[in-house]
């Protein structure tokens, strides 16, 4: 059965390692027959959440920028995959800001159930992604119908293209195929 899939690439670096992971996930999902949309946060205007909580009543953010549009795409997606570089053992600031700005989704009848994380880190140890996983899990925990369904970790990738030949690419592709 075909699913609505949204992939959010949070790296600001064009053709970076996490974006390459996202592309492989997309390739697998499309081959499996899913409807996939990719959104890059690069060149987007996304302001910080003001914490006013107006969105909990209106289901819309008071800040009118690209995050508002992306949050609406998240609302109707059945599957969301976040691709992020790991900065200082945590998700990118852009990803965290987007998660915060998705607060208007909390009181809605959101469609997403399965959430995936595709992460690329310069560090060798797998634990380098633990902070990002914990941060994303905290967001997911606020949406009782959603769950973290899978994580792809790509370690020891720093410069653009370092991920070439990395087994994480095949893992991301297979994850997309098996949605």
Can you lay out the helices and strands and say which pair or pack?
Blueprint: E1 4-9, H1 17-31, E2 35-40, H2 55-58, H3 66-76, E3 79-85, H4 93-101, E4 114-120, H5 130-140, E5 147-154, H6 167-177
Parallel strand pairs: 1-2, 1-3, 3-4, 4-5
Helix pairs in contact: 1-6
How would you describe the overall organization of this protein?
The chain has a single domain (4-44, 71-99, 112-177), classed as Flavodoxin domain (Rossmann fold, 3-Layer(aba) Sandwich), CATH 3.40.50.360. 34% of the residues lie in helices and 19% in strands. The protein has six helices and five strands. Strands 2-1-3-4-5 form a five-stranded parallel sheet, with helices on both faces. Helix 1 runs parallel beside helix 6 (167-177). The longest helix is centred in the first third of the chain and has 15 residues, at 17-31.
Principal-axis shape equals globular
Q: How would you state the average pLDDT, rounded? A: 97
CATH class: Alpha Beta
SSE order, as H and E?
A: EHEHHEHEHEH
Characteristics of this structure?
5-stranded parallel β-sheet, 34% helix, alpha/beta, Rossmann fold, 6 helices, 179 residues
Summarize the structure.
With 179 residues, the chain is an alpha/beta fold. 34% of the residues lie in helices and 19% in strands.
């Amino acid at each position: 059965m075909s699913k609505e899939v949204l992939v959010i690439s949070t790296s600001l670096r064009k053709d970076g390692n996490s974006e390459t992971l996202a592309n492989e996930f997309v390739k697998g999902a499309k081959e499996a027959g899913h409807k996939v949309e990719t959104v890059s946060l690069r060149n987007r205007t996304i302001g910080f959440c003001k914490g006013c909580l107006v969105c909990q009543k209106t289901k819309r953010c008071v800040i009118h920028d690209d995050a508002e549009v992306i949050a609406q795409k998240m609302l109707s997606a059945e599957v969301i995959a976040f691709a992020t570089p790991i900065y200082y053992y945590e998700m990118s600031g852009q990803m965290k800001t987007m998660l915060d700005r998705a607060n208007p989704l909390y009181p809605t009848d959101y469609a997403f159930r399965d959430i995936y994380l595709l992460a690329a880190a310069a560090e060798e140890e797998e634990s380098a992604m633990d902070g990002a996983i914990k941060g994303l899990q905290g967001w997911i925990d606020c949406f009782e119908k959603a769950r973290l369904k899978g994580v792809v970790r790509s370690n020891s990738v720093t410069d653009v293209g370092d991920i070439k030949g990395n087994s994480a690419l095949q893992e991301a592709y297979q994850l997309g195929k098996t949605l």
